[in-house]
């Protein structure tokens, strides 16, 4: 049996196992589906949709090209990606997974970046948004607002560290297809000229651009929702049939190697599949706060196989390879955990020492309540926003379908 046939056999065996487990444990599957749907319905869809639509409009009207030209002298020498990467990095940090992958794929489809540049860019522009880190993980799970400062600092520093590491990725491949370029500081006039040229090259009317942005964004988020529900069910079923306990031996060995509490083995393994459940289990584990914070930071950096599957689905529409992204997630997990250890005293411990802390204003109840109220508002208003957006999507899609039928 050759390797490809063996892979086919393993894939078939896996899906047969998953199907049989769903049939034999319908209640657990149903509850897990509801949990995944609730997360997508209340949080993921309403929080990502505005960013996705706005990004499509910014790309369509050439504003991203304008920003990219101005950021070229910053992004090119540091990360070896075009200036538009600065826009992707900012939007990825603000909106969370998998916005960085969505925008990178879109830029690649527009041919504004090469394949190697896209693989570098997607590796460090996917991150958790601040609202989730502070509102859900730090305050919601750990009930510890100051911890959010530490987790967010480690997480975003991990992103930058991955970008610096991946800047050397693909140099040989890139050298075969590109000539050496010299970069000079662009003027505002040149950037505006690029914006104007991009806008004039766009022949679609505004209504068509807006409709395309809504349809593309909703379709991507529907795919994301499918992955969230699938991995929620998969993770739950692994626990029900006690396979998670068997797999936890792997994480137990890794924790022992790094002298971390073995009680974090199952939370870590759960986080390898889905970050929300993993972060919650880590917060409830019977261990000291520092190792729990390190594991939570690793989970946020690794982002879970659920998010990685979402990214793989987005990248499948392009020639961007998934392997560099996966390796970058492993790197960021380790970087983020190490940064927790390095920043523990200067950030978290110093929060209890007013004369040493520059983050003291974020340590009061007022600041914590902002993140909590923001998260609670998102959960409360999320379903209404999701329903309204889906209704608009259906109307636009039906209008275009009717127009095609009339023409045909």
Question: What is the topology?
Answer:
Elements: H1 3-24, H2 26-60, H3 63-79, H4 84-95, H5 99-109, H6 115-124, H7 130-141, H8 145-166, H9 171-177, H10 188-201, H11 206-240, H12 243-257, H13 265-273, H14 275-284, H15 289-302, H16 304-315, H17 323-348, H18 365-407
Transmembrane segments: 48-71, 78-97, 131-157, 209-234, 326-344, 378-398
Domain Nucleoside transporter/FeoB GTPase Gate: 43-141
Organism: Bacillus nakamurai
Describe the protein in words.
- Residues 43-141 form the Nucleoside transporter/FeoB GTPase Gate domain.
- Keywords: Membrane, Transmembrane, Transmembrane helix.
- The chain crosses the membrane at residues 48-71, 78-97, 131-157, 209-234, 326-344, 378-398.
- InterPro entries: Gate_dom (IPR011642), Spore_IM_YlbJ (IPR014226).
- This is Sporulation integral membrane protein YlbJ.
- The protein is mostly helical and 408 residues long.
- It has one domain (26-407).
- It has 18 helices and no strands.
- Helix 3 crosses helix 4 and helix 12 packs across helix 13 (265-273).
- The longest helix has 43 residues, at 365-407.
- The chain is globular, with a radius of gyration of 22 Å.
- Residues 354-362 have low confidence and may be disordered.
